[in-house]
Amino acid sequence: MNAWTSAQIDAISSTDDFHVSPYRDDGTTPGTPTWIWSVVVDGGVYVRAYNGTASRWHRSALQQGAGRISAGGVDAEVTFTPVDGEINDRIDAAYSEKYAGSTYLPPMVSGRARVATVRVDPRKGATRP
Question: What domains are there in the chain, each with its CATH number?
Fold first, then answer.
């Protein structure tokens, strides 16, 4: 796993404009960008599927394990890793803080979305500031 730079983390955490494009079946062509919410917890970038594990981008991300993201001026090739366990409580807290007051927040911290939590990490040598 590669780490985001502090500048990338700052850029990603300061925006709600996060687009994810898991690769298509060929493993190299990015799919259609999907706008989703992201949070940063302990230096890691996390996203959730609003519609849970049935979400198309989520299924593709787990199937391919890689894709592209664009957020806050950061364009990067990334890997996707499913997340589970106690980290989800901290991710819930981060969502609640970043998106406080949104009518979409309750579904994003629900059980349906929690099971569709994914860690997004940069692929080595494949990021641009």
Answer: 6-124 (2.30.110.10)
